[in-house]
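Thread title: Can someone regenerate the structure for this chain?

I was given the following input by a collaborator and told the matching structure tokens would be attached. They weren't. Posting the sequence so someone can regenerate them.
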Amino acid sequence: MPGWDDFVLVGRVARTHGRRGEVIVNPETDFPDDRFAPGAAVWILRDGIPVSATIRSAWTHKGRPVIALEGVETMTEAEALHGIELRVPPAALHALPAGSYYEHDLVGCTLMTEDGQLLGVVRAVERGSGAPRLIVGHGRDEFQMPLVEAFCVDIDVAARRIVVRPPEGLIGLNG
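Best answer:
Regenerated them for you:
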């Protein structure tokens, strides 16, 4: 079985909901309907050990999944889940279409220009309005690179490398 750090984050328990052991989840997945469906398995860390938990029921409230896990029947039991990460093993990931990537696969990739200049290593992928951004670190410095085809011309997660064609001034602008 993979170690906890190899499991993939799909959500975090935000808070309890109601009195029947339900919790609201902040999803960290593009597939919340699949990940948080009744009968689906998620993994949680209990006493330092990954433990499988089956989703007993699920529905959506204001854009977030509300789930109940098997064995969690009361609000008090649900409160113990506050802040806990919900993960799945890597083997449970969906196959993605060409040109799509899991964020965790991009973190740790080396970012370099087409002429071989090392720009840094991807520390995180940040979402918000507009295109996702690669947060790239080089020593103590950090800059953002929009994750768009026009700038990221070759992404090879197996080689842990992203080749970019940044527009003039971008690196110095936000670095």
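The first helix runs from residue 32 to 35.
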